[in-house]
Amino acid sequence: MKAAYITDYTCVTPLGFDVSSNWNALLEGRSGVSLHQIIENQPAFYASMIDNERLNEEFDKNFSGNQKDLQDFTRLEKMFLLSLKPLIEKHPVSEETAFILSTTKGNITLLKNQQALPQGAYLSALAQKIADFFGFKSKPVVVSNACVSGVMAIAVAKNLIQAGKYKDAFVIAGDEISEFVISGFNSFQAIGTSICKPYDKTRDGINLGEAAAAVFITSEPEENEKFSFMILGDSAINDANHISGPSRTGDGLFASIRNAMAEAQATAEKIDFISAHGTATLYNDEMEAIAFNRMELQDIPLNSLKAYYGHSLGAAGLLESIISMESALNNTLIPSKNFEEPGTSQPLQIIRENQPADIKYILKTASGFGGCNAAIILEKM
Prior knowledge:
Elements (H helix, E strand, L loop, with lengths): L4 E8 L6 H9 L5 E4 L8 E4 L3 H12 L11 H14 L8 E6 L20 H12 L6 E3 L5 H14 L5 E8 L3 H9 L20 E2 L1 E8 L10 E10 L12 H14 L8 E3 L6 H13 L6 E3 L2 H4 L6 H14 L2 E2 L15 E2 L4 E2 L4 E8 L3 E9 L1
Parallel strand pairs: 3-7, 4-5, 4-6, 10-11, 10-15, 11-13
Antiparallel strand pairs: 1-8, 1-9, 2-3, 6-8, 9-16, 12-14, 15-16
Helix pairs in contact: 2-3, 5-10, 7-8
């Protein structure tokens, strides 16, 4: 069976429009989260948002002078195009290349004040528009499964390559903050009153965020690749616990990690680092702590990046996977920002400061509404 390797990636976030600027910001402990007035006549929310002026400037700089660029693009589509362009320029697109798009809400802002459903609001139309722009020959694959979408998109690419359907794949993930998203999470009383504190005793909810990220995955890495991460194992389990509340026993996440580790033939002792979901809600962080302990992973260094980026929904899993690979390449663990005092019933080895580490095996997890959970194992080659 063919192996699948991640050999390139990039991202567009409030902390920077490439991976190096994001990595440097994380090393300095900078957060993209701040107060934003998002809904008129309602209180401001802590969120991590991309500056519109910077976004438009970067888009104009990168996409001027091409007739195809003259068409109208939504704000989210600009984020997608900017994140994918650097990879397209380095890796050829063929009939054996898959295009996989991960998003939770897509162009949902197009629905505002509309009587009929705009064509661009369909996720399939969004994916096809991006695919057509870059000349993909295969039909796009859309992965939209709440907040596990980004991690699942990596797994889908791996499985399509291993099944012999494609030789390589571009995986792109993105979501933006909107009134709809803010209102939805606010109705669950899930939004925090300050910059969030994953796993901390005083945590009181999430910060929302927005980002786009992209990776190139191939079965045939070239000899001159700067880096390569093999996707050793994956799993996605839905425990169907509740429409929004996670399983109190962590069943779905536990099963996802167990299956991914079994495929990867990895024991708990083999894992060097966990890039966790860590939304900073009371129930999610508690559920994760229980699941990790059930898998005897409580002593493995772990972080959440939500206090840096907020929760970027369908982009979160892919963005955080990219940062975890940067950690491995730079032999540095990034702290889980704002963590001070343990706030879960089960112990976890939360990273508190930048620290050197030899990272070869990474466990990346994600969980979401409806009881969905996902996990992947990455090996630095």
